């Protein structure tokens, strides 16, 4: 399918976001092509997969991720807030997620930082990726442009992408200056003209975060290669696969 399905923080509509449970559930869906996740550093420098800078919303811990050692993060319950069946689901390390996903799905890894909040984040993340030979299976994205520049300095061939929820007139120029070939944009900012222009420049665009089926259908009409990021991959399936003639295209692809 052209409108590739990106599972936002895993299959986070059902399972607790950014956990192994959510990633495994996403991997069980044959139509999920990408998984998006967030990475920060523990106090002792371990890349960990969690969205918020603080622990309270998605774990039973308190305080900031950056002030907590990896051994203490591992003890936290990152699942009960979603549903009791996920009680005891831990905060995963990036290494654990890479090992799970290698060769199975591509990863959009957001460098979750602000300013100089995480010195060494880019190096630590790249070390885990390179160690597994997964450079071709990932894109590193961030709101923080300095993080993207550092990643490129450390690994010039790594694919990077800007995350933005705005529509500056010189967006294409900004992406060129950052050496980004990927753009992650809030879906209300997108239109046909922008997508056509970016595609002509070799920029892959992902729309986030789209959970409404009607909006998925509308976005699909803007450009055939637009990636769609969703908390509910099963809704993507209902829009793009469970309707004729798309379902037959998908079946033929599976049995080749």
From TrEMBL:
Domain GP-PDE: 3-240
SUPFAM superfamilies xrefs: PLC-like phosphodiesterases
UniProt-listed PANTHER family: GLYCEROPHOSPHODIESTER PHOSPHODIESTERASE, GLYCEROPHOSPHORYL DIESTER PHOSPHODIESTERASE
Identification of the protein by name: Glycerophosphodiester phosphodiesterase
């Amino acid at each position: 399918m052209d409108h590739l399905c990106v599972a936002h923080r895993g299959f986070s509509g059902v399972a607790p976001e950014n956990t192994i449970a959510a990633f495994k559930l996403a991997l069980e869906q044959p139509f999920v092509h990408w998984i998006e996740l967030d990475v920060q550093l523990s106090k002792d420098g371990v890349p960990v997969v969690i969205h918020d800078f603080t622990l309270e919303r998605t774990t039973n811990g308190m305080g900031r991720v950056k002030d907590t050692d990896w051994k203490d993060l591992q003890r936290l319950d990152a699942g009960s807030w979603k549903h009791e069946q996920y009680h005891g689901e831990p905060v995963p390390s990036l290494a654990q997620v890479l090992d799970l996903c290698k060769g199975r799905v591509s990863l959009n890894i957001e460098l979750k930082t602000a300013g100089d909040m995480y010195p060494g984040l880019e190096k630590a993340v790249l070390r885990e990726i390179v160690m597994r030979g997964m450079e071709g299976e990932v894109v590193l994205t961030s709101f923080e442009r300095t993080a993207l520049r550092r990643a490129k300095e450390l690994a010039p061939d790594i694919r990077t992408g800007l995350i933005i929820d705005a529509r500056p007139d010189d967006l294409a120029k900004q992406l060129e200056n950052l050496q980004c070939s990927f753009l992650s944009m809030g879906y209300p900012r997108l239109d046909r003209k922008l997508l056509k222009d970016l595609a002509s420049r070799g920029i892959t665009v992902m729309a986030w975060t789209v959970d409404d089926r009607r909006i998925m259908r509308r976005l699909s009409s803007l450009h055939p290669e637009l990636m769609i990021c969703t908390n509910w991959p099963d809704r993507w399936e209902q829009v793009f696969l469970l309707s004729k003639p798309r379902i037959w295209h998908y079946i033929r692809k599976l049995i080749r």
